[in-house]
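As a warm-up, study this chain.
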Amino acid sequence: MPSIFSKHTLGLLFALVSAIGFSAKAIFVKLAYVDQIDATTLLALRMIMSVPFFVVAIFWQKQGAAALHGRDWLGVLLLGLLGYYLASMLDFLGLQYISAGLERLILFLYPTMVVIISALVFKKPITRSIWLALVLSYAGIALVFVHDFSLSGDGLWLGSALVFASALAYAVYLIGAGHIIERLGSMRFTAYVMTVACIACILQFLVLNPLSDLQQPARVYGLTVGMALFSTVMPAFALAAAMRRIGSMQTSMIGALGPVATIYLAYIFLGESLSLVQFLGSLLVLTGVLMISLRKARPAA
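Now compare it with the structure written out below.
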């Protein structure tokens, strides 16, 4: 009998930690916005707290590893700017207008976007089952969107569009990351792209904001430290560790718990409503995404 610390069990635990950690980010952001901090400053504080961990990981991973070539550096730069800098900035801006639950559901559409982009760019056919999965996913988003619109329509379209663009940026990042991950390894790749994203966010702050904006209440510093540790560094490395142990498909399926976790965390910590419509909408989204993920997993099995 395998022990509870078997490779597979550890992989499942890492995937679960990653899903819940990334889901909690929206809660930290919404709590910080209570103090009227702007998105650029909040994102910069998050990355200032996070970047030392990724820099240390780069030097730790370099021992005995193959050197990066010019194409690797270019790929890391572009993917870091796209997948974690641009996607994070759009997400933080969107959270100013929409609920944490809706934000996570929209972000979780990225697997469907990967399928659509692959069909358009690489001419991969979309079967009837995939079309059904897409319809279910976007119908679920529509349900939650209508629910939120009935409560407060101010900025809902703008916020949803910003978060949708964030998910699209992340989907493009995933499509482009495969070959570099194979060469560098998931842990090393994560350290490099996250360092690029951290530096980009900090530079954006220095260009757009005065340094005095970094002077925030102690409550904001506490929230950004928590966001850096529990919703940036820990889930980023947990995701890489999970992918190394159980593969990307199974890791992504466990990630389906993320939107549900966000809805319930938002209910507990933010007082956001938890209605039957939200439950049905999240169920449709999860069903559609799992249909696509399971379909990808079968050939690999």
